Amino acid sequence: MEDKKHVDTVTAAGLLVAFGIIYGDIGTSPLYTLRAIVGPQGVINADVVRGALSCIFWTLTLLTTVKYVILILRADNRGEGGIFALYALVRRHGRWLTIPAIIGGAALLADGIITPPISVTSAVEGIRQLYPAITETQIVTIVIAILTVLFLIQAFGTSVVGTAFGPVMLVWFSMLGILGIMSVAQDPTIFTALNPYYAYELLVVYPGGFWLLGSVFLCTTGAEALYSDMGHCGRKNIRMSWTLVKTCLLLNYFGQGVWLIKHAGENLNDRIPFYQLMPPAFLTIGIIVSTAATVIASQALISGSFTLISEAIRLNFWPKVRLRYPSALKGQLYVPSINLLLWMGCVGIVLYFRESSNMEAAYGLAITLTMLMTTVLFAYYLYIKKYQAWGIVLFLTVYLSIEGSFLIANLVKFSHGGYVSLLIGAAIAGVMYIWLQAFQIKLRLAEYVRIDHYLQSLKELSRDITIPKYATHLVFMSNAARQSEIESKVIYSIFQKRPKRADIYWFVHVDTTDDPYTMEYKVNTIAPDDVYKITFRLGFRVEHRINLFLRKVIEDMVRNKEVDVTSRYESLNRQNVIGDFRFVVLEKFLSFENDLPAFERIIMNAYFSVKGFTTPEDRWFGLDSSSVKVEKVPLIIRPVENISLKRIPS
What we know:
By secondary structure, the chain is of the alpha/beta class. The protein has helices at 2-7, 12-21, 24-27, 33-38, 46-71, 83-90, 98-124, 127-130, 136-152, 158-184, 196-205, 213-216, 223-228, 230-233, 235-262, 273-276, 283-314, 336-353, 356-362, 365-384, 389-410, 418-445, 455-463, 488-497, 546-559, 570-573, 598-611, 617-620; strands spanning 448-450, 469-478, 485-487, 501-513, 519-527, 531-539, 581-590, 628-635. Residues 1-6 have low confidence and may be disordered.
């Protein structure tokens, strides 16, 4: 109920954070959308402008407002949104659903590398309106400096960032609306472009008009962020603030349309329609506000990327990397390794393309794939929620047609730079696929044994004083989901590798749930005061702090007189001293004694290569390093059989 209340509560703070975090991308699209449609070297055509405005209005209405704000925001996972949160809601109903989830997630992360460079570069290039002599290298340097500062402040968390950015975005949208009103007041007939007939004329009648959809799509590239960042801001806050945002965006687009039609027949050249709406005396302030807004535009995808990676890790789509939680608020997190990779990617994009007009070619193709995959997953969500079949078919037909058209139009950009975002997306999807396949291979071939088969041996080992005591309480992290089982590797570690005598053996398993914030546990008492198995059920957004959680569980068990944790050493027992706890984490490595099929061998080699750069298991589980033993054990997945080895006389 608390999560439902959070997602459906409208607050001033929530609205401010919404402005600061999620509307940056879609909110700064007026900087470059109409310029991309007309083209720097293109002749301004009044019919094209009206058709483009009609397309923009109906794209923002059908795609952003109806699909995302009205429909898809309904599919919250206890207040959380995004393609992986949606996948978590439906994944139990079909294994094939991992395909759209991986494609959509990878494409969204790739888009997060393209969005900051194009947004910031578009604004900084406005300096040319004031100083025509400024060089390309100087602009590139300024852009890289701004991006570097942006990524450095991520460590403070999105609450601090969003609160600081919110007022700036309010000023930005107010400026959009006022500039738009000033322009459309000169020619209110521009609103005739609301008629979808003009969009039809552009796409069907005008020669080559359909391919302009690739540029029209730039007006809605930030729509996915509305869903991805629902956990940061809340559904009602997004819906209420979107009304103002959409109004200001449309006023500005139509204001630019008035200016463009007034200059019909001319070449656009270096002029940027957005800046042409500004009075000369206001231009300097306008460029400063625009630059600030485009910095914030980057925030929408950066915070969304952190959320995506966090979810991907819990869903076994991504390697276990370090996560930080800068505040106590749900949904607020920071991923240092992803922050660094995004910064490197953004700098690389700026250095490669150098101008925003070049970046426009790389922009939009990847996010179109994400939108298509979200449509597929949401349709399946409607299906499992027992919505009427005709409604689901209508939803699929309408949005696969719209987004399919955008995808086809965007494919024209492939050779002009679109391949960059697809290559980045393919690399990310490749890592996700390898990680998921390796997880399934290990899961399929892992050996589990029943604990009760070794119960007597554990009791005898515990009482064998000829073996030095390893710890009073010995805790093994286990992957065995069943309460009655553990991995054979754990038994190997206890009895064969080095006998580990302890007074009480604890086996701890962590089960990740589809619910984002579940925090539950259950205890299986296998032998009182000898052997216990504890299973934690943690949501895919919950940080694994097993050291802390286990302490809480044992406190509850002691209070209920289920276990005696005092030291078994007589001198310490008399003083009621709690016995020492020692954790054992089994870190597997790929043994040479394997006979895997070629494909699985490639997958597992790639898996262990990537794993070398990830967070160690003990740190991932939040264990106190002073009491952890990381033990390497061979992962003999499939031993070599029928070895032809012949003994000869010596």
